[in-house]
Design goal:
Oligomer: single chain
Structural class: mainly alpha
Number of strands: 3
Number of helices: 3
Distance between the termini: 36 Å
Largest sheet: 3 strands, mixed
Strand content: 5-15%
Length: 127
């Protein structure tokens, strides 16, 4: 899936793009190794399962506690998927707008998703 869940670059293709003078962003981290790539692919697979299990129950996405700003970040399913796919393809994520006035009760953590999926799997196995 292309990055169509993210907002388009308003200056894409514009020869007067003010960011052209900035050059390519500096990467302060090495390229992704095979283990990191495999973990990211696994996260994308898990995300699809979590969305399938929880979206119809009113869960809008995942909340992540940011280590940099010490604030929770709320990611809708499509935005998180697009961000992870972009990280997989480009090795970095584009900045994006945070959710506007999110309802914290509509978002759950990765740990909650994992536990919920494990519970569903255990219930299905017991039948």
């Amino acid at each position: 899936m292309p990055h169509d869940a993210l907002p388009p670059d308003p200056f894409e293709g514009d020869p007067e793009d003010p960011a052209r003078t900035l050059g390519e962003p500096e990467h302060d981290h090495p390229p992704m190794d095979e283990d990191e790539r495999a973990e990211l692919v696994s996260d994308l697979s898990d995300l699809a399962v979590y969305q399938a299990l929880l979206e119809h129950r009113g869960v809008r996405g995942i909340v992540v506690d940011c280590g940099e700003c010490q604030e929770p970040h709320y990611h809708d399913w499509a935005l998180l998927r697009a961000s992870l796919e972009q990280l997989l393809a480009d090795g970095r994520m584009r900045p994006h707008e945070p959710a506007f006035d999110p309802d914290p009760g509509s978002y759950v953590s990765w740990e909650y998703c994992r536990g919920y999926a494990d519970g569903v799997t255990a219930t299905e196995s017991a039948r």
